[in-house]
Amino acid sequence: MGTDAARWQGKRVLVAGGTGFLGGHFARRLRQLGAEVTSCSRGEGVDLRDPLAAREAISRARPTVVINCAANQGGVAYQEECPGTILYDNTLIQLHTLDALRQVDPTIRYVNIIPACAYPAEPRDGAYRESELEAGPMHPSADNYGVTKRLAVLQARHYARQYGVASTCVVLANTYGPHDHFGPTRSHVLAALLERFREAHHTGASEVVVWGRGLAERDLLYVDDAIEGTLRVVEQCPDAGLLNIGTGRGVSVREIAETVSGVVGYTGRITFDATRPEGPLRKILDIERLRQLLGWTPPTPLAEGVRHTLEWLETAQSEEAAA
Ligand SMILES: NC(=O)c1ccc[n+]([C@@H]2O[C@H](COP(=O)([O-])OP(=O)(O)OC[C@H]3O[C@@H](n4cnc5c(N)ncnc54)[C@H](OP(=O)(O)O)[C@@H]3O)[C@@H](O)[C@H]2O)c1
Q1: Most ligand 1 atoms within 8 A of CB, residue of 55, 68, 73 to mutate
Q2: What three-state secondary structure class fits 248?
Q3: Annotated domain spans of the chain
Q4: Ligand 1 atom with least separation from CA of 89
Q5: Would you say the pTM of this structure is higher than 0.90?
Q6: In angstroms, rounded to a whole number, what is the distance separating the alpha carbons of residues 174 and 190?
């Protein structure tokens, strides 16, 4: 059984950050399901670092659900470039969005999208469990961002106690798919490799060098599954609290590179540069709670998700070239 369209028909949903990668997918899917979707972002004139702007955006939209995808973040290079701004902006975005919601109407349902970097860098058995969010320090490569999301989870818990605001904090695994960021500074592992292998394929390069030893494992979630899982949570178990959505399976950077190069059709050599940073060794979400609560796990195999992403990228780039 898929997402229940009847539940979303005519429902007013505010997607904060609805112009971004995940927010855009939420907005498109919810519109398909018949919801009345409003988005807010700086590009649309709403800066959620400003508490008044956050309150006005929520008052104007009069939503019954707010899905918060607003964030100032990027890949490894973006982290290197402005770590302080990332900490500052995201702390304000998180605090002000939920506080504005409770001021406007504490009965609005709040869904906050959380990245796995909020978890301890060295989780027990290499798996991130909801009950162990605060069990250890975050990885120093992204603790400036992760701390803002840990704060958001705490804020949600305490706002539930003090104001009765019902919220769900959904931790998504590394999500990829159409409309992802493919530029050199903002891209995450899969989008970055897809761009590199496509370029190597087109130019006939004999070798692609991948950062790190190829051993780091990631839990890669296709974006349609991320959206589907989150909407199911909102529909079926609105009081889930903190909940992981991922595949629960680690794919090594070597396997990712081989899958991507296979889909792209690149036939040259793949080598690994061990002197380059590779981030935490394992980032795998434990999805036992997801299984128990929804009886559902993300169904899209990696190669299929990569194929859809490649098709979208090629269409988008040829449309851009023709324009
Ligand atoms: N992508 C993933 O793999 C992944 C996985 C797990 C969790 N998440 C989490 O999901 C959320 C969304 O990620 P994403 O990849 O979709 O990010 P994204 O593509 O960078 O989108 C971020 C959105 O936030 C808006 N924004 C940034 N600063 C803002 C501000 N001050 N006020 C209002 N809006 C602001 C951006 O628009 P403007 O720049 O126009 O303001 C954009 O619409 C983040 O919290 C992220 O940590 C992402």
Answers
A1: 73
A2: coil
A3: 10-176+220-248+286-299
A4: 31
A5: yes
A6: 9
